[in-house]
What does this fold into?
Amino acid sequence: MTTDPIEVFISYSHEDEMLRNKLVKHLSPLERKGVITAWHDRDITAGSEWAGQIDQRLETAKVILLLISADFLASDYCYDIELKRAIERHEMGEACVIPVLLRDVDWGEAPFSKLQALPQNAKPVTNWTNLDQAFTDVTKGIRRSVEQLKKTVH
It folds into this structure.
């Protein structure tokens, strides 16, 4: 079983930045324990080529979180670049793609619709009466996936 942290790529629409920030806070105990290292495009430093940074991280991440909302599905970059490549890597067994449903949207025909989504019962985060409970559920699901992944990585 590997002890190195699992690299997690977070794909999201900038309209969902507030919700992404909350998720990152909930993931922080996993980062502090060295279980994961989470990355998103706001981690790109000034002067860096943003497309190259995103491409590199998308290619090396072992877990790819898709933060799903109408804005995500409407974004050409999220859908045509990040989602497309994430699904390709998932189908080749190179990465585990986890859809995280942030807000209500019809995603039944999306390329990720065959994947188990978080939170439980595919209930979008914003439909929970308590966002902390929703993100705790998401974090627990991510932890289980990462633990399973660590068992299979040699």
